[in-house]
């Protein structure tokens, strides 16, 4: 750290971090000691205690209106510092303080909620995903406030406590607090800070998950006695599934592609570059080539800007050893669809439901349960705010983040896109591994480097002309 | 029993049974005390002890060459009495002395291997299926031998010990013992004696059971990252299944119907009558109407003389609560096909295998495991031997058995049809319920009535001109 080049406007804040390194780690250990597991109701009290502790920290470093806001689920931490002046931008900082469950516990080499540093790595549940972002932002903002007595821009903090369990309360929370949350730019900090191959997911697909149940005879029937005269629900389920794609791999639901947005050459080049950077790694993961659907569009586009439909599970009838001569009474399958702009999840869910229900007959009933509807998201791909974040990354590690379009879904970003009237970009602090797995860790030196990048980022954002 | 009409030629034998009623029940209790569960290797010793005890009984009543013949699985009981003269027919009597497992044991009201009579019903595992046939034949033959010192025809006994576990050793046993087993007529006694609606299944379908495994990526993949570029094994499994029938319900396997035998008007009338007699009961069981495939042929024919294909179970991917966004690494399903004369199971199995394997692609492998190949069977529908059996039934309960063609499979009869050069008909002794279930029983009075029918049957068979 001593070799770090001087950086005049943020030097005092950088020095503050250097001088408080031990306190920063101690505080991080404390934050990581809360078992804020949102998925397990048994930990609801710990989730709340964690929120309250963060509120205390925000107050201590000089934030105002710091409070735990109750929702139907776990609470949101809110706080603001709005004294930079009306000519300065306001940023809404989003992250989450809840964590994944820890099982299988026996695979952890140290207690998941008693952080431990081994070989320069800090091990604890949430160390990387994503208390790193919560703590990173707090420490960056504290160092600026301590060094300068002020921030270079107006800041609103929103840390949720349900991200790892699907954010069920966030949509009503956001809808009810639009004014409180309004800003010029939203900063999603739920991500990592990869020193070597920094990436920023600027777009992702929406998602619909659904479950279909096909029911036929009253009970499992003898296939000898009833074969040929009673329609088999497994056959109907298979027919439905088989009919959902044409032989090239296109989804056949009526109107499925009607609202799919064309991409321009800039976008095409961007996603191609992003895909190619990962192709070898992805092939290793899959163990197969990506030939499926190749006649429709190049691999990079099918994986990102075209919608998909996959059956994630199917079951019905006898699954044990040997054979059992039955016509099963029912069959079920689970589906997820990945949606892209400007497909609308409620519309597609309805199309799916009607299409699938159309396979019902006089002896077959079909139930479709739509479980989740998540919207696609699109963050900034240019503009001053993104440039400010990228410049901070480049100044810190020598290169900006590569903009990648993920085929996956971050429903909460789709929701922010849809409900909030502001652009969104992202910046992450964690550089570690094993998120959602045993022995989650963050690299300690990289975390301190990310704090420097964070300082530069807030500084740069403060310089953006509104 | 005292009101039973006198029946001159068999009267002494009838009297013998009347006078030995208690001994007959005591012996039956003893036979039922052997836990001859063929499916569970833990009972192999008991199966053998049961066989040895029966051999002892056969010797005691005057049979010759009585022996336990070892097979690769459980032993066969063989014995003969061949002193009726060359001008008299020889009958080969087939039945099985093994029984189904007894679980769930807690649902039994008395010990399954300690027979108990309650309200005129004798409860024990095997009481109906099918130690009734083993004991019934022994008692009928004993009474004739005791009363007359001889039998009206030549008799060969073959009781197997593997019927309830699929008779894996019977085909090699029969192939190796054709001369020993040769007779003029084979009598299948593995069935019941329903006093009210006697039925005789004179034909049944063959069966092929198979399991298909469809493999795709190396492991379950994230459906966001790989949706659209990696082919989903569940989709391929569904395509295979969906393609196996046309929209009318015909099986689409190439050549599937090529060898299906046309039926004549007599047969059509017979199966229609048999089907109609059961339709209401069957509809209640199924809970749905039998509309599937109705454009192909009438219900009775689709259920009996046309072949079928049913998927009995399918599974792959995530089956738990909620959703899991994966493309599963593999999918599997189990199939049974019901075959009719003159389809050949090995040929159809090969057609199925090749057809299904044809769905393999550059990223999808397909394995087909053919588990069982059972041949369809056709017993006597006219002729003197059947008439002799029917006359015995009619003389005893006032009507002959209705000839019914079952859609189910009795692979061992198909095997006898194919390997043995003799006609087959059937006669059963049991009149009870809960076969294969807890609290299996036989109605005691009906069993004694069945013994009288058995006496008449052997008498009538002995009168048939060779």
Automatic annotation (TrEMBL), chains A, B:
Gene3D superfamilies recorded: 3.30.70.360, Zn peptidases
Keyword DNA damage applies: no
InterPro entries: Bact_exopeptidase_dim_dom, Cyt/Met_Dipeptidase, Peptidase_M20, Peptidase_M20_dimer
Annotated Pfam families: M20_dimer, Peptidase_M20
Keyword Ion transport set for record: no
Keyword terms of this UniProt record: Hydrolase, Metal-binding, Protease
Record GO biological process: proteolysis
Listed GO MF terms: metal ion binding; peptidase activity
Domain spans labelled Peptidase M20 dimerisation: 204-357
Protein's UniProt name: Dipeptidase
């Amino acid at each position: 750290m001593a070799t770090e080049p001087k950086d005049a406007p943020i030097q005092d804040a950088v020095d503050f971090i250097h001088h408080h390194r031990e306190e920063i780690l101690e505080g991080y250990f404390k934050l990581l000691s809360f078992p804020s597991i949102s998925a397990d109701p048994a930990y609801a009290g710990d989730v709340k205690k964690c929120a309250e502790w963060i509120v205390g920290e925000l107050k201590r470093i000089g934030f105002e209106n710091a409070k735990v806001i109750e929702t139907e689920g776990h609470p949101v931490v809110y706080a603001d510092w709005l004294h930079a002046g009306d000519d300065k931008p306001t940023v809404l900082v989003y992250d989450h303080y809840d964590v994944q469950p820890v099982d299988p516990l026996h695979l952890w080499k140290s207690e998941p909620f008693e952080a431990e540093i081994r070989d320069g790595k800090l091990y604890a549940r949430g160390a990387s995903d994503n208390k790193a972002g919560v703590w990173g932002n707090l420490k960056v903002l504290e160092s600026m406030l301590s060094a300068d007595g002020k921030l270079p821009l107006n800041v609103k903090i929103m840390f949720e406590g349900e991200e790892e369990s699907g954010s069920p309360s966030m949509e009503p929370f956001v809808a009810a607090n639009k004014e409180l949350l309004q800003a010029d730019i939203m900063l999603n900090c739920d991500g990592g800070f990869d020193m070597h191959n920094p990436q920023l997911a600027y777009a992702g697909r929406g998602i619909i998950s659904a479950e279909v149940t096909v029911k036929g005879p009253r009970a499992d029937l003898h296939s000898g006695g009833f074969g040929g005269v009673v329609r088999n629900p497994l056959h109907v389920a298979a027919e439905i599934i088989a009919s959902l794609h044409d032989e090239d791999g296109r989804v056949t639901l009526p109107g499925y592609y009607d609202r799919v947005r064309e991409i321009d050459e800039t976008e095409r080049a961007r996603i191609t570059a992003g895909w190619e950077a990962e192709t070898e790694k992805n092939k290793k993961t899959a163990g197969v080539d990506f030939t499926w659907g190749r006649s429709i569009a190049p691999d990079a586009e099918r994986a990102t800007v075209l919608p998909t439909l996959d059956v994630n599970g199917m079951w019905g009838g006898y699954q044990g050893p040997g054979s059992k001569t039955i016509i099963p009474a029912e069959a079920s399958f689970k589906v997820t669809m990945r949606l892209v702009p400007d497909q609308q999840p409620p519309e597609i869910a309805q199309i799916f439901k009607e299409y699938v229900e159309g396979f019902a007959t006089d002896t077959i009933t079909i139930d479709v349960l739509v479980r989740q509807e998540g919207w696609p998201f699109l963050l900034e791909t240019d503009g001053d705010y993104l440039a400010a974040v990228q410049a901070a990354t480049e100044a810190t590690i020598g290169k900006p983040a590569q903009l990648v379009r993920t085929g996956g879904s971050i429903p909460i970003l789709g929701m922010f896109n849809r409900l909030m009237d502001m652009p969104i970009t992202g910046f992450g602090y964690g550089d570690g591994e094993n998120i959602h797995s045993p022995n989650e860790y963050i690299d300690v030196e990289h975390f301190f480097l990310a704090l420097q990048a964070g300082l530069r980022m807030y500084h740069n954002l403060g310089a953006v002309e509104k």
